[in-house]
Specification:
This protein is mostly helical and 69 residues long. It has helices spanning 11-23, 27-40, 45-52, 57-68. The model has no long low-confidence stretch (mean pLDDT 96).
Length: 69
Amino acid sequence: MPKKIDFTLSETELSTIEQAIHSSHDAYLVKRAMAVRMLHQGQSPATVAEILSVTQATPYQWFHRFRAA
């Protein structure tokens, strides 16, 4: 069985995501930030992928990239 990923963000991480969504002029960055926020809010990666019209692997990649940075 695959390992369950905890998409919960800390208050600091969530603040960073919210700031990116509301102040960035880079549409791609906003899209990635929205995906991370939706995962944090409990949406499944498959649902996030469908809403944002990306592959199912993309929300995982964006989340892991955010955590690594």
